[in-house]
Amino acid sequence: MELLQQLINGLSLGSIYALLALGYTMVYGIIQLINFAHGDIYMIGAFTGFYVATKLHLSFLPTMIIAMIVSAVLGIVIEKVAYKPLRKSPRITLLITAIGVSLLLENGMRFIVGPTPQSFPSLIESSKINIGSLQVTNIQLITLGVSLLLVVLLQFIVYKTKVGKAMRAASFDIEAASLMGINVNNTISFTFALGSALAGAAGVLVALAWTTIDPYMGMMPGIKAFVAAVLGGIGVIPGALIGGLFMGVAETLTKAYVSTRLSDAIAFSILIIILLIKPSGLLGKITREKV
């Protein structure tokens, strides 16, 4: 029963990593960019939720929607200002720029709100649900439910809408998509907005569960979500979901049965093992690049 309890905890945490990993994998799928600022957009989403809840006294659902909108707008601004001018530059240039944007968001937020962690308001009163000897909190159920709903909505957008078709075409061949009349710039901006909105939702869900937020809260979850995206096969949406859930369960089981201090080391060990055994990830396919 204890193992089942830890699996439930791990799935709740993994759903957060999955939402973040989806943002990484969608952006990479189109422009082959690892957006290392993505974890900090998650942090901005949490702080947006904090200020909306404390200043406007809104409930959970409006708070999360506003956090998603603000995160989406921020994602578009970052793409337009920092990445679009460098789109034809070497990938290392974009990578360095992404790290610079990440540091800017972290330290900019630290300058605005200070280094002291903030206590997130209790938008939903926490309660425990007993199923035999298992204990599941309503916050865990909400986290899993909202994450699943957002993933289903994302799948619908990607596979059932015109803009989703444009995203898939651009990810397959961005130049050919442009020649076929697809507005590639708008498609890329929409992809950033979509991924950033998911990160904003994840920020609010985490703040709801952990109750404290700080300007550097996105660093480690962002890196772990990147590991999850690589694990599942970066550029593959179902892979990001599987990788995120796997990472959450692995971290929870490590903390429960091995050591809390080794949980981060295990995460990066998984990345190294996957890169050695199957560099393309669990669901990824090896592609050959013409030179």
UniProtKB/TrEMBL annotation:
Source species, domain of life: Bacteria
Subcellular location: Cell membrane
Keyword terms of this UniProt record: Amino-acid transport, Cell inner membrane, Cell membrane, Membrane, Transmembrane, Transmembrane helix, Transport
Pfam families found in the cross-reference section: BPD_transp_2
Gene Ontology molecular-function annotations: L-isoleucine transmembrane transporter activity; L-leucine transmembrane transporter activity; L-phenylalanine transmembrane transporter activity; L-valine transmembrane transporter activity
Keyword Cell membrane included in the entry's annotation: yes
Chief place where the protein resides: membrane
Record's GO cellular component terms: plasma membrane
GO biological process: D-alanine transmembrane transport; L-alanine transport; L-isoleucine import across plasma membrane
Membrane topology: Multi-pass membrane protein
Membrane-spanning ranges: 12-34, 64-82, 94-113, 139-159, 190-213, 225-246, 266-284
Family as reported in the entry's similarity comment: Belongs to the binding-protein-dependent transport system permease family. LivHM subfamily.
Name this polypeptide is given: Branched-chain amino acid ABC transporter permease
Native organism: Clostridium manihotivorum
